[in-house]
Amino acid sequence: MHVKLPYFDMILARLAQGDPDFEEAFRRHVHFGAWEDPDNAYLDRPDSIKAMDRLCLHLIKLADIQDGQDILDVGCGFGGTLATLDEQFSPVRLTGLNIDERQLEVARGRLFPRPGNQLDFVLGDACEMHFPPRSFDRVLAVECIFHFPSRKTFFGHVARVLRPGGNLTLTDFLQPEGAPAAHFDTTDDPLWGSHTAIGLQAYRELGEEVGLVLTHAHDISRHVRPTYHWFGQLLGRHYPEAEAVLKESQLIMDLGGLGYCTLRFDLR
Ligand SMILES: C[S@@+](CC[C@H](N)C(=O)[O-])C[C@H]1O[C@@H](n2cnc3c(N)ncnc32)[C@H](O)[C@@H]1O
Question: 70 and 96 in contact (C-beta within 8 Å)?
């Protein structure tokens, strides 16, 4: 399956070179971290890894995950969220879905579930999920929905595959209310590839259409902001064009153009 993800092309190229900085930085997650004290962030690798772990743990808590559940992690990257779930819960049945076989290959080589837990990786598009109805108690989509061909189609699938009492927990870059539709949509960003953005009200309406009720929305931009600089420094050593895009992306956030948010939707 082909998908344009220039930042993953860069990360995978560095991993293929055996670059120890990239190996360490992306051992688990490839997402924006939640920095505890963003005004005094020390932008080295241990802090950035802690920040990424912090975001992951925060989302697991927000999703109210429990032992005994079936959990789907959509856009699972290298499997960092699944690894954390495997450590924290048992028994659980974990499924990681990703459109990029190269990432799944890395994840398969890194993750071996604890006895009692089950883990499956599935190659596929979040907008063409073939899981049977009511297969999962929780669906997570950590920092990936902006790449999907359609949030509406994805939400339809989530409403179908969730069991009663289930929820969808995700992070996304939201545009402010009143921003023109499709303002940030692009198919050829030199770093992020394809991405689209919508606002909170549009999210609420999307959920309502399929019985997913928005029960949590929180802007954590202030806490993720240091990631732009950290990621820019790391990638910039090899890909100066990436650093330039990251500077521009940070400026957009600083000007209030996009905010990084945690969202939870409960199945009605
Ligand atoms: C920023 S990364 C986040 C990875 C992971 N969730 C994490 O937190 O480390 C975005 C992920 O979305 C995946 N992705 C993009 N489009 C997708 C699609 N249509 N269906 C499934 N996964 C997709 C990418 O391959 C990538 O793994």
Answer: no
Is the CB of residue 119 less than 8 Å from the CB of residue 86?
Answer: yes
Q: Mean per-residue pLDDT for 138-166? A: 98
Tell me, what amino acid is at 45? R
Domain residue ranges of the chain, discontinuous segments joined by +: 6-25+41-267
Q: What is the pLDDT of residues 153-199, one digit of tens each?
A: 999 999 999 999 999 999 999 999 999 888 889 999 999 999 999 99
Q: Which residues pair with 265 in a beta bridge?
A: 168, 214
| Ligand 1 pocket list (CB less than 6 A) | 3, 5, 29-31, 74-77, 80-81, 97-100, 103, 125-127, 142-144, 147-148
Rounded distance between C-alpha atoms, residue 204 and residue 212, angstroms: 8
d(CA 61, CA 57) in angstroms, rounded, equals 6
Residue 207 has pLDDT above 70, yes or no: yes
What CATH number labels 6-25+41-267?
3.40.50.150
Contact 242, 232 (CB under 8 A): yes
Per-residue pLDDT tens over the stretch 48-78: 999 999 999 999 999 999 999 999 999 999 9
- Nearest residue CA, atom 27 of ligand 1? 77
Nearest CA to ligand 1 atom 25: 100
C-beta neighbour count of 128 within 10 angstroms: 12
Alpha helices of the chain — where are they, by DSSP H? 6-16, 20-25, 45-62, 80-88, 101-110, 151-161, 200-210, 221-224, 226-236, 240-254
Question: pTM of the full predicted structure?
Answer: 0.97
